[in-house]
Structures are given as C-alpha cells and as structure tokens.
C-alpha cells in the first residue's frame, strides 16, 4: 500500500492503516538505529515513541510529503533526545555517532555461495569510509533517500551531502582497485 494512502487512513483513524505502516517500516528503522550505534533496547523504545507520536498526533496529510524521511528523521531525533536524557549532567558536544553497518540486505539478491565473499568485500569497502560517509552511502543507496533528505539528516547543505556521497564512492572505487591489484600480485 502506498504511503500517502496509509497517511490518509491514519488521519481518518483507520487502525489497519497504522498496523500496515508499522509493519512496513519497523525493521528498516531498527536497522538504521543499529547503524547509528545505539543499543537495541533503546532503539526499540525510540521506534515505539515515534509510532506512538504518529498515532496520537493529529496531523494533516499535507504535513508529511515523504513518510520514510519523516520516520527516519523522527527516529534519529528521538534517539538523540534519549541519549541527552541519559547523560543529564554531561554536555553533549557532538551528535556525530559512529555509523556502522553489516551488510545483510543483499540476502535476496546474492546466491548463497557468493554471498559471504561479497559481504566481506562490501564491509571492507565500507570500513574504509568515515562514519559520516558510511551513513550517507547507506541513506542514499540502501534507503534511497534524496540528497536534500540526507543533508537534513546529517545537518549539512544538499551540495555538501552530494559531495560527501561522491567522495565516499570515489574512495570505495580506489579501495576496490587496490584490492584487485593486491590479489593479482599474489598470483
């Protein structure tokens, strides 16, 4: 079911629309929270808070133009709020959390015998990136967000987000070429 139909259903109090929306996005949001480096229980609580707010908030359907982006932004903000509450007496200097990901989304695409090799190569390439580059790559290519949305999530300009993704891709290409050269030199 399309997001705008779900939003309309929720606005009209349709519980089935809410259940469908929850089922559609809960795993993706959990994966994003894990990638941000938060504990699983905190992520689960934050996701529940996001959906509870969505359910209780009487919004006009026009407020949300991209539901996926709205949920990502809401989750990230809620996780930051929970983190701030956890360290009440300490000052939060930076919200730049280590973004990590273990590739598991490729299960349906890769044949079983090639999956492990490809996962290792991708993880090695992602490990060569900075935390922000990893987060930008995952948001762009895994979660298919636009540069404006990535910029908003990472608190930067759209031009800077485009440049960040471009540099990350260039770095991974160079790393892949280096790996191939090492492999060929061994033979």
Automatic annotation (TrEMBL):
Pfam families: Sigma70_r4_2 (PF08281). GO terms for molecular function: DNA binding; sigma factor activity. Keywords: Sigma factor, Transcription, Transcription regulation. The keyword ATP-binding does not apply. This is RNA polymerase sigma factor, sigma-70 family. It comes from the Bacteria. InterPro entries: RNA_pol_sigma-70-like, RNA_pol_sigma-70_dom, RNA_pol_sigma70_r4_t2, RNA_pol_sigma_r2, RNA_pol_sigma_r3/r4-like, WH-like_DNA-bd_sf. Residues 120-172 form the RNA polymerase sigma factor 70 region 4 type domain. Transmembrane segments: none annotated. SUPFAM superfamilies: Sigma2 domain of RNA polymerase sigma factors, Sigma3 and sigma4 domains of RNA polymerase sigma factors.
